[in-house]
């Protein structure tokens, strides 16, 4: 295994709370320590390290949260239930482009339209609908959110509530006699128990079945930069490049038949980098736990971290200027960007009268002791509205104007 420790000397070595999900090593280098302020009584740890495994080089989140915490989080607090601004539904223009691209890649590898295909983590079924439109007859979804499952089934596609580690996955596999293809699109970056999850998915494939995986590409974060540390959040806990993704599958007896660098469309103006890979069972069927390549990529991650730090300074200066102009604001957005701003910038010095969010699950809850309200409740506030959103600030601004609110609108881009 090749190891290159260039540029790693500046990093602190630590004993890991979460052992490496690829090679089970318990030591790593700390690349960045992240602090966030989450909505009150949140399930997940708000302080964590982004680490690089000493043994295999995998980059991932190290914190006190465990698989059970993430399972509960996605079942009870799923943000993917919305069929308007959040990806997963296939109703927005960006979603349509994204799912058409994925289904096209699947068609290139698997052209049998009678093939059984499971979309694991299907959200509101956008990919399932795209596959059905391409002629695939046997498509089915699995998702932890009861609302998402209901949304899919109301549109005529079979779906079941469950997650990658639940018994429902086996039930579906048994019903279909194993799947010809299982799709994990934007799933593996969210999974704590990564090695066990892959093993369970593979058990549900036919011997000649294909595994389709799409994950954010850590080596391109700096090229798709939007706001500081937006990729280092509480949900994205595994950060893959081509080597670490191949290592994970190789250790489990699967080899790559196709791997492409692509981009996922969030809105027509925003996208992020992804890897789309297809894997099949190795012919020799030998599991070689130590037969992986050391992932020594670091320059690209360093570039992303440094770019984030530079923009952190700029944003903090802009917020400091806001303090001179006014003290009271309403903050629209309680997601990862707001959580980061509250913990790391002068936003916490402003007098926040209320938080606003379109997510009904958050409405009525609180953040730093301040109530989270619905957009309809904004009419009694005349304070400036500070929009805190990574991808949907333009949509929110449009919504404010459509509601004929006259509040001053503030955005930091």
UniProtKB/TrEMBL annotation:
Gene Ontology molecular functions: methyltransferase activity
Signal peptide: none
Key words, A-Z: Methyltransferase, Transferase
One Pfam family it belongs to: Methyltransf_23
Organism: Clostridium thailandense
GO biological process: methylation
Superkingdom in the source lineage: Bacteria
Protein name, as recorded: Class I SAM-dependent methyltransferase
């Amino acid at each position: 295994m090749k190891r290159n420790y260039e540029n790693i000397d500046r990093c602190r070595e630590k004993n890991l709370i979460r052992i490496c999900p690829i090679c089970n090593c318990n030591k790593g280098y700390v690349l960045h320590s992240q602090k966030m302020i989450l909505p009150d009584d949140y399930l997940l740890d708000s302080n964590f390290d982004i680490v690089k495994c000493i043994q295999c080089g995998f980059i991932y989140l190290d914190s006190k949260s465990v698989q059970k915490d993430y399972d509960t989080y996605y079942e009870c607090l799923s943000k993917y239930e919305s069929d308007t601004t959040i990806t997963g539904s296939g109703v927005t223009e960006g979603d349509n482009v994204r799912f058409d691209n994925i289904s096209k890649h699947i068609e290139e590898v698997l052209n049998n339209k009678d093939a059984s295909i499971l979309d694991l983590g299907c959200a509101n079924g956008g990919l399932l609908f795209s596959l059905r439109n391409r002629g695939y007859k046997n498509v089915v979804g699995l998702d932890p959110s009861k609302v998402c499952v209901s949304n899919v089934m109301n549109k005529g596609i079979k779906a079941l509530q469950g997650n990658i580690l639940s018994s429902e996955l086996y039930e579906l596999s048994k019903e279909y006699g194993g799947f010809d293809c299982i799709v994990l699109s934007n799933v593996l970056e969210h999974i704590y128990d990564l090695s066990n999850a892959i093993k369970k998915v593979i058990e549900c494939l036919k011997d000649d079945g294909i595994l389709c995986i799409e994950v954010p590409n850590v080596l391109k974060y700096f090229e798709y930069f939007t706001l500081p540390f937006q990729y280092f959040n509480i949900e994205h806990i595994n950060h893959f490049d081509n080597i670490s993704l191949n290592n994970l599958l190789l250790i489990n007896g699967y080899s790559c038949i196709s791997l492409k660098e692509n981009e996922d469309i969030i809105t027509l103006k925003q996208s992020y980098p992804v890897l789309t890979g297809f894997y099949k069972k190795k012919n020799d069927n030998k599991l070689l736990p130590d037969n992986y390549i050391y992932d020594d990529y670091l320059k690209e991650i360093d570039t992303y971290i440094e770019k984030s730090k530079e923009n952190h300074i700029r944003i903090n200066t802009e917020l400091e200027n806001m303090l001179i102009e006014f003290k009271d604001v309403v903050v629209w957005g309680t997601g990862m960007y707001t959580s980061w701003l509250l913990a790391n910038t002068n936003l916490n010095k402003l007098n926040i009268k209320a938080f606003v969010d379109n997510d009904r699950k958050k409405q009525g809850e609180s953040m730093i002791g301040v109530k989270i309200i619905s957009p309809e409740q904004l009419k009694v506030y005349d304070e400036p509205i500070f929009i805190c959103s990574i991808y949907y600030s333009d949509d929110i601004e449009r919504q404010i104007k459509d509601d004929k609110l006259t509040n001053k609108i503030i955005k930091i881009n």
